[in-house]
Amino acid sequence: MNGFKVLALAAVAGFLFTVTTPKSNAQVTVEVGVAPNCPYGYYDSAPYGCAPDGYYGAEWFSGGPWFHGPDNFKGHVDNTFDPKNGYKGPAPKNGEKAAEQRRDPSQFKANETRDGRGHTGEDKK
């Protein structure tokens, strides 16, 4: 009888090792919502707040008040104006209008390139 118990126990253990939990096909939907209406653009990573004047270079605004360009677009930014890098200065509120006098584009000092979709690259400027 002991041999039968060992064989039965081994069979049950083997069966339990081959049984897997059923796979579920879950679908997750993330709704980002409408982009904020910011006079100088918004940060391209969460929480997507309004970026201050001087964060984005002039090429971001060449097609209108806030332009990301074609799919392969890369524009210059000064990420010292990014809160992730310690910036604690003023930022416009959602819906504010741009200042009458923008900064001189020749004075812009980029230190990074971005594509507006959260991807960064080395600055070639």
Structure description:
The protein is largely without helices or strands. The chain has one domain (34-125). Helix content is 14%, strand content 6%. The chain contains 1 helix and 3 strands, in the order αβββ. The chain has a 3-stranded antiparallel sheet, with no helix packed on it. The mean pLDDT is 79.
Layout of helices and strands, plus pairs?
Elements: H1 2-18, E1 75-77, E2 112-114, E3 120-121
Antiparallel strand pairs: 1-2, 2-3
The radius of gyration is 27 Å
Shape: rod-shaped
Mean pLDDT: 79
Give the helix tally. 1
> What is the succession of H and E elements?
HEEE
Taken together, the total number of domains comes to 1
In a few lines, what is going on in this structure?
With 125 residues, the chain is mostly loops. 14% of the residues lie in helices and 6% in strands.
Tag the structure with descriptive keywords.
125 residues; little secondary structure; 1 helix; 3-stranded antiparallel beta sheet; 3 strands; single chain
